[in-house]
Amino acid sequence: MTSSATSQQPASGEGSLGHVIFIAAAAAMGGFLFGYDSSVISGAVTGIQHHFGVGSGETALVVSVALLGSAVGAMGAGWLADRIGRIRVMQIAAVLFAISGVGSMFPPNIFVLGVWRVVGGVAIGMASVIAPAYIAEVAPPAVRGRLASFQQGAIVLGIFISQLVNYALNEGAGGNPNDHIAGIQAWQWMLGVETVPALIYFLMSYAIPESPRFLISVGRMDRAREVLRDVEGQDSDPDARIAEIQQVMASEHKASLSDLLGGRAGLQTIVWIGIGASVFQQFVGINVIFYYSSLLWQSVGINASNSLLISVSTSLVNIVGTVIAIALVDRIGRRPLALAGSAGMAVALGVAAWAFSYRHGTGTTATLPNTQATVALVAAHVFVLCFAFSWGVVVWVLLGEMFPNKIRALALSVAASAQWIANWAITVSFPTMSDWNLSATYVIYACFALLSIPFVYFFIKETKGRTLESMG
User: What stretches pass through the bilayer (predicted)?
Assistant: First the structure.
């Protein structure tokens, strides 16, 4: 624990803000791939179903299996980052992304496609951990929230670009994902295009410095001093910052799972809070909108082309909400944004549940009355907006900064892994739950949004403006 004299970092880093923004943006390219890979499947899923002749059960497994890979990647990323560095982990993730893209483009059967989805999932999990941890470690405290928000900004941009690419490829193939472009089916192009941003991510990783905290941990003091001066400004005192970081590290050792243990519940309270935030972020059902957008809207009578357009519009709203969060997260704090978002999501999900209760029929014969269809579309967009300006950004910011230095990378890995498992549970269950009762499914999501309000109020502490060394 640092003294109060060192707990507030001077804003000397403002002079190097442009350089720090570039570093954060480059690191956040992993988030772009995370968003692209997570969402691209929504446009390809109907093409996959027809190409391999599979039903909703197999489809749910192919969509969700990547998330189990993500849980594995997230769990291992923190351990790996503490041993080989943050930049090397980014590069490994980029290579796995590229391999997954090529493999998913040409699968001989549904099983092999699932394997390549797992490989991509491992890369997603690694990127989901390393970007917020790295950005939090290089960013000056005065702007850390905004820079950490780049992760979610990149995620939503990746989602939007994937939806836009899906729509363009689908239209280029004549409105059918199983028709061909240059001899290859449109859905295959959708999955394969991610190799391009994967290559960009790999190259950009060579243009940014290693985390100063990792450099200090391996004894590279001269390089750590250079990086700190670059990111915190020429008027900063890198020697004082190194001394502060070393003071925190003095009694530390390489974190292991035993370091997360404590208390009556098995894990330290702060670790459980991180897990809880991660689980709530997923249990409101946000990724149903992105993973199953096309199927969701087709299940209430909207045709394939229009359902893809709706996916594009919700992705645009997602970007708008994220920009709002980036502008506000360091001004009004993490907790107020999370509380406002929870309330908005609960209302929007409740309204959507009411609208979906008027659905008649199932599958391709399903319909909604015009009034309820309009209400459902508006509610879905409001839900995405409320999530984007709150939980979408706040959770990633908190996970990058809420844990004590001693366990930060490993605890973030555990929390992110829990997030991917929760994501998997929602994703694999939605097709069956939707067939059972779409309206009731959204009532359940609304209940989780409501429960997130007391969770934030009683358990989440504000981290705005604090140095990482003052977190415990």
Answer: 17-36, 60-80, 92-110, 116-135, 147-169, 189-208, 270-293, 308-329, 336-356, 376-398, 410-430, 442-460
